[in-house]
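Researcher: Next entry: BQ5605_C050g12491 protein (Microbotryum silenes-dioicae).
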Amino acid sequence: MLSSRSRKANELVSSLDFSQSIGRDASAYVLGQLVELGLGSELTAISFGLLTRRKLGVAPPDTDPVQGLLAVATEQGGLHIFGKPPVHLSWDLGRPLKIKHLAFRPGAGFLACVDQKDTLHVFDLGRIENNKPYRDSSLSLRAQITCVEASPNHPHLLLGGKDGTVDVFDIDRGVLVPTSRIPNCWVQQEEILRRSGVPDAPPRRHIPVCTDVKTHPLDLNLVLIAYDGGVSLYNLAQKSIERNWEFVIPPGAVGGGNDTEDTIFTERRPPVTCLAWRPNGLMFAAGHEDGCISFVCVSDDNPITIRTIERDAVNKTTEEDLFAWNAKSPEGRRQTACREPIFRLAWSSFEQETMLSRATASLSGAAAAAMSSSEIPDLPTPDPPYTKGETMLTILGGLLPKDPPGIHTLAFPPYVAPPNAASASSNIPYAVREALKASIEPTFHHIYPTDTPPEDFILLPRSSPHFSLSHDPSAMIITTGQDRRLPVLAAPHASRGIEAWSFPPAQGHPRPRQLRLPAQLCWNGPGTCVSARLLNVQTLAYRRMLHQFDMRDEDSDRIPLKGGKAFPRLRPSRTGMRNHVPLDNQPRIVVSSHVDLVVRFFDVSSSLLQADRNDAPSSYASTSSTPAASTAELKPLLTREYPRPLAHLDLDIKDVLLDPSASGLEASRILKERPWELEIIKCDFAVHTCELAVALSTGEIILARLGYGDLRDLSTIEHDRADAEAELDETISDALNDMNVNSVEANPSAAPPRRASTVNPTPSRLRKGSVASASFATPSRDPSDCFIDLSVVLARRPDRDGFRAVGAFLLPPPNSLKAPFCIELADIGFFAASSGNILLIADLRGPEVLLYDDPTILSYGKKGKSKTKPDTSTVTSLKWTVSAVGDDHDRQPRLIVTQASGTTRIFEMANVAGGWVVSEGPVTFQHDSVKNAIATFVLDPLGNELLADPLRLQQAMNQQFAPSHKNGGFSSLWVVVTPMVISAYFNINGPRTAQYEDDTASAFESAAVVLKDGCPVLIATTRLRTVVAFSLPSLTQITRMSFEAAIHTDVGTLSIAPDGDLLQFIDPLHIRLHTIADIGRPSCPPSLELWDPTIPVPSLTNALVGAASNLSSYLFGYQKKVYTGSDMDAILGGPNRKPAPVRRRATAATPLTTPQSSAPSRPAPTKPRLSSSQNEFTTTQSLLASTTEALERRGEYMSALQERLGTMANDAAKFAADTKKMAQQEAAKGTIKSGFTSLFNR
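Model: Predicted structure:
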């Protein structure tokens, strides 16, 4: 039997319908994925040039400097293309296979990749279908591919195999060219060694492995092939070997230092690992397995010199090296160096101005102004006028175990040719050798430091695709290995990091400028995400977060990718797009925490995918006579990245913990001693006050607040800071003397003064039953001991807007990672946190801890011992609200605390004389349906959620709420979500008005109140990868939606925004943004154009070709022909090369009509009105044009089909003729055999 109160409450609530018919329409709910954050797998290849680190089987990205694109591949067969900030396209091979190699055909719009099954795939970036490039060709290769070389001068790809051969693949035709295959050039050389009786000659079963292939930078006919035994120079036109080189370390020479006392006095031939041509083609560098680098002239049989990074001429025997093995002292005795191999080399040249002056300019001007004084070293004086021929060699590997990890660069002076000198042998003259040796003596040495050993690097040229993509680079991308100092996650994650730096380095600068990568590349390695939340932000707070954030500052620190175009388009909706729904303009941000203890902010607002007329480039404003051209000119361009990283808001917890003021924190000690044990477990953000709370695994909670940057000079800021601190100390000292507090005067350091805003309430000034009384029991732990002031922590960039540390709250650490640990920020300046069964409440205006409750020691009741046993169950949910409770109709800020046992406590905050205090005793009640609550919500009689925001606090302070007696005493409805039950209660602690019990085996894991077209509904997610919508307040199920992806059995952690978008965090590799709202929003990815056919491919100038011809004449003694790209295309294509297929590349994108901007713009020219006949004529023209285009396309398809059928017919006829001929031969053989048999039988 229901009591009269319960019956009255049920009748009152049942008559309400918050969701209405719009929210209860099941057909309006469609769960769709908007975008996936990150790469989705471990990074394996990256391409702006062709790089491969063979030790780990990992290839770097590849780039097309002509189009300005960057390609990245992953371990699960994923491919990503990056260009301008809004340009990003991702797709996969269709099979989860690791991609080993990437290569662009620069300027042509083709991307080639080789997977771990040695299958070659070529994608046409000029044809994008279903949000992925068209697969132009695919071929299973016969050998295991170890290296790939692409040339911008011809469409042929050189594929080095483990069997020592080099295959040639024609990208335009999509076939291998067997007539151009390069045989194993080192087999004959090994046979010579065996016949010569060399002791360490390889056996006959040994197959030389091709480790690298490099085309001559000026003479395309010459190809340098590296084998594990040496290097061969191959002539493609003559199909012959020009020269072979062996790299012998003589007995006694130190070499790379990896030899023992037994092997140091023998001849050693370190295997070759990589190659790099000098840009003028005069000489090349070869990296070795023992960490040495050999420098060789192409017309000499012997190396010019062999060196390591720190020492030259390691192929020469010295007295020190000979006698170091027998040194008396252990310190002076030589030990095995254990030097790592040389994994990659890149030899760069530069344009008119010198590389050092360019590097100095990159650190000056706006870039230097944006850096703090502590980060800007003294700039060197400008270099003398331009000196031609300066080069720089970038080295990966060759380090000793004691060396710091990083990428090393050696700067070389220009080569000065000596006067003509004769040589008695076939080698170069002595004067030329000395001049070449002088040109490879480093003028300075620089290191790009990395936190972990680098795995590969790639240079980003400004525009030239020649010289192995190393000419005039402006940036360098480095991939790094796993950082052992970071926590090891149990979930799948990407451990390899990636970072970018400016290039070249300036002499005298210890650290070059670090560049920002695209947002999708920031979720790997140290940026591995451990948690993420999706939040709706008010417009005022959103503008505050973007204060001083300029697009120019954003793009200035980004890697120089200028390729592609992005156009907005509407997202297709399964329920049909309703025209009356406006475009989505709700600001949204993602707050994510990462393993490197950094909290990062990303803007995922739909406005980033919209463009107005002001975003269109000036070239679009030109007039055209054709309607098609006019339509193309009016297409708006996207200019902003999505998701957009808000780097100026990033909060690095390490900077806070390493500050001296935080030395008392346990997290600070662990960070210095065992950093892999420290991680972020919770993060909360107040969207109105822009306050951030970060909970660490030690139980400490760092509080930070968004502050504006100070644009004054940094020295002035520090001077003002010191003056302010001195003035504050003097003010506090005077205040203490005026107060005449004996306890404070006796020991000022032991009892810090309380803030002036904190008032100790007295019984005469308290409101009965709502605020604390003098008889309230003091907790066993002093609340002031639970807070440490961190406001003096220096910001890394005080000139920029960003989060500044305020303080740290101290709580016991959770028992395990899955133990309940809750934090809740209110937008009215309150904070609550719980660890297990311990509760902390704080006022952030101080900040000041108002309550520290440990139920194992303290119980609520009268003075003395409590007769009731306190509830020691863990706290599972915290919720701030401004509402009335039960019969208390006063709206006050309240904290609702639910525990695992079903006990609920409601703490009231009261303002007394300008300070806030906690109520004397909380309102306590218990329900079995509240056990293990995961989320709670408080709704008003209209269905609006009663959040603790500034507006409701102001209304509460002014008592501006409607009286509850007009609603029959109905002031609020409390909705509680537990793993199996959802319940609603009248006035929070009143009778239950509705309940939903899930009859399936799934359990609820998260919930939120969402506004569906302005009507509130309850959205809950289950463990079985479903999303359920409930009407309010009846809690009737509206619909149940399932996630489409069936790869993951767990739905992960979901963060639901009030507008219906939700962020799904399955693991660090799979973070997806979904929506259930059918609103007008742009699609992601937008409409993309990756290949621009109007951009020409820069060619080698006639001066360079002439220089190569003169160089060959000087070196070889005769005028040698220098082959061009067209010549090589004819030579490599072979005599029976079939014609190239007809490719129709779509470059037009459907424009998205966007609302006009409110900003004033130029008035559009008035156009004369068209009559109805003119309109009909235009329509007829468009129909005829589309019909003609369709007929042309049909003709192309029929021609291609006819060509294929003709080829099949020819092949069939040839097969029949061959079969007939073979049958005739077999019959003739049988006849002859039978004749001889009968003859012998006689």
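Model: Note for the record: The first strand starts at residue 32 and ends at 37.
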